[in-house]
Each structure stands twice: as structure tokens, then as C-alpha cells.
Amino acid sequence: MAKNIQAIRGMHDVLPEQSPLWHFLEDRVRQVLDSYGYREMRTPILEMTDLFKRSIGEVTDIVEKEMYTFEDRNGDSLTLRPEGTASCVRAGIEHGLLYNQVQRIWYRGPMFRHERPQKGRYRQFHQIGAEAYGLSGPDIDLEIILLTRRFWQQLGLDGVELQINTLGTSEERKAYRGVLVEYLNGHKEQLDEDSLRRLDGNPLRILDSKNPDMKQIIADAPSLMDHLGEESQAHFESVCKGLDDTGVAYVINPRLVRGLDYYARTVFEWVTDRLGAQGTVCAGGRYDGLVEQLGGKPSPAIGFAMGVERLIALLEEDRERLELKQPDAYLVLMGDEAQRQGMLLAEKLRDQMPWLQLITHCGGGSFKSQFKKADRSGARYALVLGEDELSRGIIGIKPLREDAEQQQRPIDQLADFFNREL
Ligand code: ATP
Ligand code: MG
């Protein structure tokens, strides 16, 4: 027999059992985004490969070795998006949304990176992210961080810690780069292969190395913080002051450089120690140069992206607390006439209560087997309709999640019952 085809390594199905968690997260997150006036933008999952080469940068993990790139039937080089910011900027420029305007935008969806799959690291994963364009001051940096804090509050997640840093302007980074390269050249024998390669092209990224052997040399490296100009310093101080004012606890992490090339000034990550090595659940920062780099008129920008799978893993730990939505009722139908009438009744109930989650039993079977299915469905009530109930115009209501007797009600009072009880 032929072997069953399986999902691609590192790409996962979200099963029905899991989707209530996803809905919980998506609903809460969307509510927060709405409450700050961010509007959703949806872009294609495929983009021209050059978009990512030009935005993320040629000397990055993503572009060097993680992209799903292929030629389509016309010979164009296309890439499954590895992140969302490049597409937002591309669409913003294309539709004239950015120049001289303030835009608050969010997006969500699957991203693709050919990484080594492990817990919290997949080849298809999901992000929800937001971007604010046209604002260069520290106030929007603060807003973005406050917005992300509200996510954790609304999701009931604690133990997520804010780390922030500033990368200065590109000129300041250039000056710092010289100092850093000098230092790293002095310790060449301790650099790993990746870092040696980056020494010329992109030395700052060496600070982002995940290799434990590199930890010490990175810790001892000169700090960009000591090479900032006055304006960058003031910008950063203002963000920190805003965080103090609003009671956001944070740690300044001078080694936080972020994986992508286009960041400037404020960068931040929300990190938890509950997920092992893959502890960053949200990462973002300012990227003032990118819009121009992609051919638009210059426009300041800041944004972040969250790893949905990592947040789901955190939520999963205390699934009980979330009181996820279960079906309200399961309609048990005994006999041919009850099956016919039951369908009509169920339709009527959904007319009256569009929010009601009602499963109608299909396929007949014994009372016992139907009741077992009602129980397994997670429904709060079983509704029982048989010949006897039909002839008397009543229906049985049996609570399934508490120890209580079955009661009987006139069928036409069911809506009253649910409106009161649910
Ligand atoms: P990491 O340092 O974990 O590789 P990154 O710097 O590559 O992350 P970003 O590109 O900034 O991450 O993406 C933002 C967030 O998306 C990350 O903080 C993480 O939560 C999530 N994320 C990134 N890559 C993956 C992946 N391969 N699988 C699952 N989640 C991911
Ligand atoms: Mg990465």
C-alpha cells in the first residue's frame, strides 16, 4: 500500500481541539488593536524575491538560508513571505498610503522560514504584527510598547519581560561599526564561522548570535549606547521616561540588535523564560530608513511582530483558566418524527438566538449512544426530543456539566430558558 502523505516538516495543522485557543488569542488581540485605532491590511503571501532581498538585507539568516524561493511558470523569482513588514511597506508605497500621512496598520497570517524545526521554531509559523508610519517621535514608540503590554494583560499572561535598546541612526551605527570591528578583529580566534563571515558584511549581527560559545566575547564588546548622538540619546531617554510614567517594567539590553537590517533607534523584545530557548514572543522596533530603501518617499516607521505559536504554547499551560467557548447544547433526537421536527426546531432556535451554539444529532442511533456523543461534544446541555415530548409539546433539558436532574419545558419557552441561563 502507498505510504500516507504527511505534512511538510516544520509545518503544522491547527486541529479543532486547538482552534478555540487561537480564537481566544485572535479575538483579544484584535480588540486591543481596535482600541488603539490600528486597521488591518491583508497582503499576498507570495511576493517578488527582490522585495525581501532589498528590505531584510542580503547578509541575514533569512535571505541567506531561510527563504522559500522558487521560479514560477513565467520565470519570475517569487518567495513565500518570511515576515510581514516588507509587504506592508511595499503595499503602502504602491497604494500611496505612506507619503506625508500617518497610518496605523496591523496584519496577521502565516510566515515561512526554512529553519531547523524545534519547539517554538517552525517552518510555517504565524505572526500578528502592527506598523505605524509617518511618526518620528518617541511618543509613538511608547504607544506601540503600551499596546503590546495590553496584549499580555488581556490574554492574562504574566512573566513576559520587556527588553529595550536603541540602535541609533545609521550614521551612528557606522561609526560604532568601526569600533566593533576593531574589537572583534582582536578576538578573531574566538569567532565562529558565521561571525567570521559577517565581520566584513554585517558585524552588528554578530551581537545577535545564538551560539553559546560566542556569549562571552559578545558580553565584553563595546556598546553602541556609548556612541550615540544627542538626538538619539534624547529619543531613547524619552521612551524610557514614558515607560516609567506608565509603570512598564523594562530591562535595557545593550546586546539587543534584532535580526533584521532595517531597524534604527528604538528596538524591543518581550521575553519569557517559560519557553526554553525560544523565549521571545514579540519583537519590534523603529525602521525609519526602509520606506525610502524600497523606493518610497522617506517616512518614519515603527512596528512589531508576535509569534502566535509561542503565545499559544503559553496559553495552553493554563487552558482551564480561559473558560474557552464550548457548544451550548446538543439536541438528542429519538425516532423518525423527532428527527424531522428536530431539524425545524434547531433552525428556529438559531433564528431566535444567532449566538447559540447548537449541535443537532444526525444519523440516528440509540438513546445511550446519542447521549454519549452529547457528553463528548463538551456541550453544556443535552436537549431531548422523542415521540412522547413531541406529543406533549415539551422538551427535556439535561445539564451535562453539573450534577442536576433533567427538567422539562414547553418547547416554545426554550429561547427564554437559554436567554436566562447562558
Ligand atoms: P528568533 O530570534 O527567535 O529567531 P527573529 O528575530 O528571527 O526571532 P522576528 O523576525 O523578529 O524574529 O519575528 C518576530 C517573532 O516571530 C519572534 O519573536 C518569534 O516570536 C516569532 N518567530 C520568528 N521566527 C519563528 C519561527 N521560525 N517559528 C515560530 N515563531 C517564530
Ligand atoms: Mg530568526
Automatic annotation (TrEMBL):
Residues 1-327 form the Aminoacyl-transfer RNA synthetases class-II family profile domain. Gene3D superfamilies: Anticodon-binding domain, Bira Bifunctional Protein, Domain 2. Belongs to the class-II aminoacyl-tRNA synthetase family. The keyword Ligase applies. Homodimer. Its EC number is 6.1.1.21. One of its GO terms (biological process) is histidyl-tRNA aminoacylation. L-histidine binds at residues 83-85, 113, 127, 131, 258, 262-263. Keywords: Aminoacyl-tRNA synthetase, ATP-binding, Cytoplasm, Ligase, Nucleotide-binding, Protein biosynthesis. InterPro entries: aa-tRNA-synth_II, aa-tRNA-synth_II/BPL/LPL, Anticodon-bd, Anticodon-bd_dom_sf, His-tRNA-ligase, HisRS-like_core, HisRS/HisZ, HisRS_anticodon. It catalyses: tRNA(His) + L-histidine + ATP = L-histidyl-tRNA(His) + AMP + diphosphate + H(+). One of its GO terms (cellular component) is cytoplasm. NCBIfam families: hisS. The keyword Nucleotide-binding applies. CDD domains: HisRS-like_core (cd00773), HisRS_anticodon (cd00859). This is Histidine--tRNA ligase. One of its GO terms (molecular function) is ATP binding. It is found in: Cytoplasm.
